[in-house]
UniProtKB/TrEMBL annotation, chains A, B:
Keywords assigned: DNA-binding, Transcription, Transcription regulation
Matching Pfam families: MarR_2
Protein name: MarR family transcriptional regulator
PANTHER family: TRANSCRIPTIONAL REGULATOR, MARR, TRANSCRIPTIONAL REPRESSOR OF EMRAB OPERON
Segment forming the signal sequence: none
Domain HTH marR-type per the UniProt entry, residue ranges: 1-138
InterPro entries: HTH_MarR-typ, WH-like_DNA-bd_sf, WH_DNA-bd_sf
Tagged with keyword Chaperone: no
Natural source organism: Neobacillus novalis
SMART domains assigned: HTH_MARR
GO molecular function annotations of the record: DNA binding; DNA-binding transcription factor activity
DNA sequence: TGATTTTGTTATCAAATGATAAGTAATGGG
DNA sequence: CCCATTACTTATCATTTGATAACAAAATCA
């Protein structure tokens, strides 16, 4: 297989990933937040504590807009801002108790759908999947 | 590795896929269309000919909004609508010449970045990647 | 110390997107 | 033929998101 063919295979693959991700995550999030706010919360969940700049960089949202959305999340009591004692310009952000509860529910919903998707996989299949994830993560979807 | 750990590995993996996809595709699209319009064009490109209902279903956009966006694409001469001779309610949609040119350019841009990403991969790496893509596509990200 | 950079905020505006109601035209089933 | 359904359209409105300018405070650097 030449590199061009690999490219097309990869395009088709990423399309599948996006489709399945959508399938697993749709309606998993609370109605009280917008899609962008959810993606910010998701990022905070897996990377906390993070700064506003981290969110802005990683989610590709401008600083003013990041500030606005984070403020809204803060007003909804889903996150907490903690000032850095070293550098007082910085603010570390992490989930509040309420935020944790909300994200736990969302993740539980997604996970149950995920488990459902792999319920028919054999032990060998699961091992294959795990190996494949590792290979792609290190060789193709690396940072 | 238990299924729960596999779930988290998978979450982390899909996050990487989304990040890399964004990296490869950013600014690849023409400025004359919106992100949603681009995703519609992308879908048409790989699945043409498609009906409005197909687009609506697969892209998760309501029919009225799909109709509006497709109309805009049509006004920009990027697509063509062809009435079905069997069922005159249906319209098959495909890229116009201009639309093909635009999508070829966009895909070329994405592909060059992709090739750049795998330029240091050995022959064995590429084979590993291909196998891994196949495994995940059939065992995890299947329809 | 004074200038510059970094980190974040506020305000404002335009554009993109989502949601809904109401409608047309063609099809198909009884 | 009549009625329900399907495929799509038009119009309208609210919300979300993106972009920009102008600002403040703290840190860093020369």
């Amino acid at each position: 297989m030449d590199k061009k063919a690999l490219f097309f295979k990869c395009v088709s693959f990423t399309t599948s990933v996006h489709r399945v991700t959508h399938e697993l995550t749709q309606n998993a999030k609370s109605d009280s937040i917008t899609p962008v706010q959810y993606s910010i919360l998701e990022y905070i969940t897996v990377s906390q504590p993070v700064t506003l700049s981290d969110i802005s960089d990683c989610q590709h949202i401008s600083m003013p807009n990041t500030s606005r959305e984070v403020k809204k999340l803060s007003e909804k009591n889903l996150i907490e801002k903690i000032s850095d004692t070293e550098d007082r310009r910085k603010q570390y952000i992490r989930l509040s108790k309420d935020g944790e509860i909300m994200m736990n529910e969302a993740f539980a919903c997604v996970e149950s759908r995920f488990q459902n998707r792999i319920q028919n996989a054999s032990k060998e299949d699961l091992e294959d999947i795990e190996r494949a994830l590792d290979i792609l993560q290190t060789k193709l979807f690396y940072k």
